[in-house]
Amino acid sequence: MNDAQLLRYSRHILLDELGIEGQARLLASDVLVVGAGGLGCPATLYLASSGVGHLTLIDDDTVDATNLQRQIGHNTGRIGQLKVESLKQSVNELNPDTQVHAIAARAAPAMLDRLVPTADLVLDCTDNFATRHAINAACVRHRKPLVSGAALRFDGQVTVFDLRDPASPCYACVFPESEAPGETACATMGVLAPLVGVIGAVQALEALKLLTGVGQALTGRLLMLDGKALQWSEMKLSRDVQCFRCGAGLPV
User: What is the pLDDT of residues 157-205, one digit of tens each?
Assistant: First the structure.
């Protein structure tokens, strides 16, 4: 770590649990973020400001005026630009230490099978169940921790799926593919702007903990936020040994 980095990350280095070694691990880390919208923007910006060395961003959408109410990685001048390129520019302006690989495409299974194995962990910042299940399937196949977040209207939730822990469920244990509800988009239901910031920031926090080994991750716990009452609640999650995606032949 050079002198400029020692200064930039000094507030991390002052944390006994993190220190120089923890910051060095962040600088050497590779994180895959799927989704460059409401959740992906704050999560990515906090990962970059924290000094994560390499970020891969996947999203096929472009910046729209309606995004700017909550997607803080974009701005008015970038309307019409690819979201991954807009967010990459924001990261570059925030922290040149972080290298960004921007992929303007849908997160298809074949692509995920190429990218997930080289990542230290994956953030699911998407808003549809088909993509969420594709991300989960890749993380199960390649045994990579998955930090999953969701937000709609006034409610949010976040958890960690990590099959390196034999007791951890996968996304399909909790939300089976055969029981996926109809898609609900914020375009029709709405979402309060700061809510996605809160959930995205928690996703970044969980990612930093997993990358550095600090604290206790949300593995096996679903953290839920009622934004109207500003109340957090927690639900324990358990592995489904009959899960189609992770149950067969795996240790409980």
Answer: 999 999 999 999 999 999 998 776 665 556 678 999 999 999 999 999 9
Answer yes or no: is 249 within a domain: no
pTM (global) more than 0.85: yes
Residues 6+ apart with CB under 8 A from 163: 139, 140, 143, 170, 246, 250
Per-residue tokens: 47: 């990962």
| Residues of the domain holding 66 | 19-236
Q: What 8-state DSSP symbol labels residue 143?
A: T
Looking at every residue in the chain, the average pLDDT score rounds to 94
Q: Which of 145, 93, 125 is nearest to 202 (CA)?
A: 125
Per-residue pLDDT of 159-171, as tens digits, reads: 999 999 999 999 9
- The CATH number of the domain holding residue 37 is 3.40.50.720
- Token readout for 251 is 């240790």
E strand map for the chain:
30-34, 54-58, 99-103, 121-124, 146-152, 155-161, 221-226, 231-236
- Tokens 């009959």: give the residue: 242
Q: Which residues contact 217 (CB under 8 A, 6 or more apart)?
A: 145, 160, 162, 206, 209, 210
3-state secondary structure of 193: helix
DSSP at 100: E
CA atoms of 180 and 129, how far apart (whole Å): 7
Overall residue count recorded for the chain in this entry: 252
Asked if residue 6 is part of any domain, the answer here is no
